[in-house]
Design goal:
This protein is of the alpha/beta class. It has a domain of about 200 residues: NAD(P)-binding Rossmann-like Domain (Rossmann fold). It contains 9 helices and 12 strands. Strands 3-2-1-4-5-6-10 form a 7-stranded parallel β-sheet, with helices on both faces. Strands 7-9-11 form a 3-stranded mixed β-sheet. It has a two-stranded parallel sheet with strand order 8-12. Helix 1 crosses helix 7, helix 2 runs parallel beside helix 4 and helix 6 packs parallel to helix 8. The termini are far apart.
């Protein structure tokens, strides 16, 4: 393929200890992981595969784009022919599969897109990796698969009770990936992380969305009461967790990536109002918060 089509090969093929494919690498979390990988493994070639959807940007990786052990390829994991050719030509050893549709609200009005990318795309990718005899396949899922309980603590053995189309698509993709372990002993690992925040996050997620609204002198919009609590992980912390799983994760296992840091949506909004609007009184905080029906 030509460089214009996204198969960006810089000169002669260099010799690397491992070739590691990161799907969705121009997205928020995966871009932080790629930066950590390039620092930790200078003798690995890190291949970033991304179709550059609306929430992805190569600006997230500007600081490392000239690294000799980094390569970007533009492509779609749902394109079976493309993915098969990628594995045939790139001699990939390890896959970190981040590519996914992840916006919960969006999943309610275009659920078929989530099924296509998260389920069918994962099927295409894991099958190609299996055919290519990849030595480790890490599938990035979410703690959303456990459901929306605010009282129950979950562990890796907890049953899956997805409560929205996004979570359902991720639960289904987990089943597909794990079936390759059960059927073929193909070395897959599944991760489920809590909410992640940090630099470069697309403003459809709650923290950057609230910040953007407040910076434009608009109110934080909260569905329902906002008392539902969420656990939050900082981007570089979760990136370190993925590197630990890469190094020590056992085939066939599922790993939760969690934190004790918990905050309700309403408290999060108040904290951001306090920081951005420099106000502390309860009445002033409430002026910047708007509640809408959760139905």
């Amino acid at each position: 393929m030509s460089e214009e089509s996204g198969w960006n090969v810089r000169g002669a093929r260099a010799s690397f200890k491992k070739r590691l494919l990161v799907t969705g690498g121009a997205g928020f979390i995966a871009s932080h992981v790629i930066i950590c990988l390039l620092e930790r493994y200078p003798d690995y070639l890190i291949i970033n595969l991304d179709k550059l959807d609306y929430c992805a940007s190569l600006k997230n990786l500007q600081s490392v784009s000239s690294r000799t052990n980094y390569r970007f390829i533009q492509g779609d994991i749902c394109d079976e022919h493309f993915v098969k050719l990628l594995f045939e030509t790139e001699n990939i050893h390890i896959v970190l599969h981040f590519a996914a549709q992840t916006h919960v609200d969006k999943s309610f009005w275009c659920s078929s897109e989530f099924t296509n990318v998260n389920v069918d795309g994962t099927q295409v990718l894991v099958n190609a990796a299996y055919q290519a005899n990849v030595e480790k396949f890490i599938h990035v899922s979410t703690d959303e698969v456990y459901g929306g309980s605010i009282k129950e603590e979950f562990n890796e053995a907890s049953p899956k009770h997805p409560s929205n189309p996004y979570a359902a698509s991720k639960a289904a993709s987990e089943c597909i990936v794990m079936s390759y372990w059960e059927s073929f002993r193909f070395p897959v690992v599944v991760t489920r992380s809590s909410n992640v925040y940090g630099p470069h996050q697309y403003p459809e997620k709650v923290i950057p969305k609230f910040i953007a609204l407040l910076q434009r002198n608009r109110k934080c919009c909260i569905h329902g009461t906002g008392v539902q609590a969420r656990h939050f992980l900082y981007a570089t912390d979760v990136a370190e967790a993925f590197l630990t799983i890469l190094e020590k994760g056992e085939p066939g296992e599922t790993y939760n990536v969690g934190t004790n840091f918990e905050m309700s949506v309403i408290q999060l909004a108040k904290e951001l109002v306090h920081l951005i609007k420099e106000t502390a009184s309860e009445s002033e905080l409430e002026l910047w918060i708007e509640h809408v029906s959760d139905s």
